[in-house]
C-alpha cells in the first residue's frame, strides 16, 4: 500500500480541521507578523503533517530501508558465478643432479573453473530474492506501525491540550467565586471559613492544571520523537477529537487483517526457507572442477595440452545436517506464522474491545451524565448566588461537571488510539457505522 493510501487510512482516525485564525490574529497588521517569518515552533500541526514527518524522518523506517539494501546486496552476490583459478606449475627444477637448473623443467600454465551442479546457484538466488521480498514486507509493517503510533501520539497531544483547557476553565471558575464569596461573608451570609475553603479548592485546581501541562509537554515530546525530532518544534496540534462513531463487528476486522504485512510477509519467509532447503539439498551434489592448461618440456622443447576434471566423492559429508536444519527452519517459519496470526487477532480484539467500550462510555456521558452534571451545576450556581446552597455544595457540583468532562476526554482519547491501532493492523480505514456519529 503506497504511503498516501496509508496516510489516508490512519487520518480517518481523526477528522482533522485546519486551524482557523482568530479575530485578533486576523486583525493583526501583516507588517508586525508576516506569515513567511512565523517560526515552525508557532505553526499549528495537523495530523497529515505529523505523519508525513514521521514517514520521512523516523529512524525505524530508515533502518528498514537499510535492511532492504542489505538484502538487495545479498541477492546480487547470490547470482555471482565462482571465479576461475589460474595456476602455474614448474616441475623437475631446482633439484639435484641433472635437475639442478631449469634445463629439464616442465612448466604448466592452467586455468580451472568450478561448475556448480544440482541447481545450487538457482536455489541461492531464489533464497536471496525472497529475502528482499521479506525485507520489503517488513518495511511496510514498520510503516503501518509508525503511522499508527504517530496517530495515537497525536490523539494524546489533542487530549492533553483539551485537558489543560478544561482544568484552566475550572481554575478560572473558582477564581471568579472570590468576589462573590467575599460579598457573602461581608453580608454575613457565609462563614469566613469558606474563604479558606475556596483557597484550598483554588490550590488543588492549580496543582491539577500544572500536572496537566506537564503531561502535555510529555505527549508533545513523544510525538516529536516519532516525527524524528529531538524536541517539539511545532505549535498547537489541530484536529477534531470529539467525533466518534459506532465501531464495526470484530469478525469483519479480523478478515481484513489477514492482509496485514506482518502476516503476508510469511509467504515470502516460507518461500525463502524452501529455497534454502533446496540449496541445502543441492549442496549434497558434488561440484565439478574443469581445467585446461598448456605444458612445456624444456628438455625436448615440446609442448602439449593438459585437461583436468576433479569431482569430490560424497562419502563422509552429504550435508545431512544442513538439510535437516533447513527443514526445521521451514517448519519454524510455519509455526511463527501461526504465532503471529494469533497475536494479531488478540491485539485486534483488545483494540476492538477498547474502541467499543470507549464509544459506549462517550455515548452515556453525552446523553446522560454530562447534561445532568451541567444542569446540576447551573442550578447550584444560581442557588448559591441566592444563598440557598453552601460553597461546599457549589464546589462539589463544579467538580462533578469537570470530572464528567475529563472522563469524556479520556474515553475520546482511548477511542481514537484504539481506532489508530486497528487501522494500523488492517492497513486500511475502518468503516465506522453511518448515522451513529456522536
Structural summary, described in words:
With 438 residues, this protein is an alpha+beta fold. It has helices at 3-11, 23-27, 47-57, 59-78, 120-186, 193-226, 250-256, 261-283, 320-385, 391-426; strands spanning 85-91, 106-115, 288-297, 302-310. A four-stranded antiparallel sheet has the order 1-2-3-4, with no helix packed on it. The longest helix is centred in the middle third of the chain and has 67 residues, at 120-186. Keywords: Cell outer membrane, Membrane, Signal, Transmembrane, Transmembrane beta strand, Transport. Pfam families: OEP.
Q: List the strand order in the largest sheet.
A: 1-2-3-4
Helix content: 55-70%
Task: Find the CATH superfamily.
Answer: Outer membrane efflux proteins (OEP)
Overall 3D shape: elongated
CATH topological fold name:
Outer membrane efflux proteins (OEP)
Distance between the termini: 31 Å
How is the biggest beta sheet arranged? 4 strands, antiparallel
Count of runs of 4 or more consecutive helical residues = 10
SSE class: alpha+beta
The domain count comes to 1
Main location: membrane
GO cellular component, one term: cell outer membrane
Subcellular location: Cell outer membrane
Region (Disordered): 23-43
